[in-house]
Request: fold
Amino acid sequence: MADTTATPAHYSFFEGVERNFDKASKYTRFEKGILEQIKACNAVYRMKFPVRIGDNVEVVEAYRVQHSHHKLPCKGGIRFSMDVNQDEVMALAALMTYKCAIVNVPFGGAKGGIRINPKSYSTYELEKITRRYTSELVKKNFIGAGIDVPAPDYGTGAREMSWIADTFATLNPGDINAMGCVTGKPVTQGGVRGRQEATGLGVFYGVREMCNVAEDMAKLGLTPGIKGKKVIVQGLGNVGYNAAKFFSQGGAILVGIAEYEGGVYCETGIDLEALVAHRKATGSILGFAGMTDVAESGKVLEMPCDILIPAALENVINASNADRIQAKIVGEGANGPLTPEADEILNAKGVIVIPDMFLNAGGVTVSYFEWLKNLSHVRFGRMDKRFTENVNSQILNSVESLIGKSVNEVERKMILHGPDEVDLVYSGLEDTMIGSFHEIRESMLANPGVDMRTAAFIVAINKVGVAYEELGIFP
Reply:
């Protein structure tokens, strides 16, 4: 059977982003030249470098694209994948510019990638490739706390970021802000608590906020709130797993999971942790007791649900399968999981698509917090945690004295608790996602007939355009 998630070979991800940009730019006040500057990729660095792998020398192809310099540093992840190419990296860099603008993170957009299959290399070989890539970025001044700050992406994680930070620090002795050259690092290396789950948690916060708008839910024939809504998640990677976890904890019913080996579906709900344990034991999510196995992963996306979260790779919903999507809400957990053609089909069906450039911005938001931590050289909460606890204790004692009653031990601990770093990170992320959602919704209401993606682009273009005007770079 043919793969229904296949996308035509000629499809250009970057051109798809530009199409969405052009669609939204008509609703802005900026002249053509400024719009062309916002849309253009400012710098594209394509490199090839040799690395000895075993007894052979391999030439590795890699990229770093800086889409916008309207604010510095630039910011964007680095992915390790055989699908990495210039078009993809340019598109993802552009989305990063708009994403940062939407969530009010003061970065320009960037993206990087190394065209390898990380599963084909040992840890030592991956370290050599990552460190050599970093040294190439240093040579061309494409990395630094005030220049360009990478982060994890598909195929990379905290381990790779620690290699990048160490390599940069070695090549820049005496730079006290060297650890700020990259985010997503281990906490022991200057990382921030809450970063690993940030993108998935941001997806949950964004979808939850939309579900709390009674007017929008009524149009979909749904009740307000996240509780009881049926959710399908594609991907059990970092984003998909954490999104599924937070949806389950929030009272939603996880009815489907799709992975590369296939998918599972159960209308009454899936025990996520038990499924993950089953996969670790067997190497597959298939064959899990009580589930309906779906051999073709893409078919899971087409099964009944209220909310669909594609949280893997791009272009999985396209012209060939969009008309079979049954979800009423599609939340883009991944970058670019819908093609423009799929967007048009789903919008015509009345489906609300929450765009990636907003919904998966949790990662860059918390990366921003990590960057701030690295530049300030102090952990969040260190200065005020104990003070807050002491003040709360005095207030509680006064209240108990006035009313003549004491709270129980569980309530006492909750009231007295001063914020730890992870509490502040979660709070900052929640506030960011809620505020940004309502900015986009207000843009929709101000421009009748536009979908949420177009509204998000309008918000982003307006913010970047104003920044360019204020820079005074157009004589």
About this structure: Residues 229 and 252 are 5 Å apart (CA to CA).
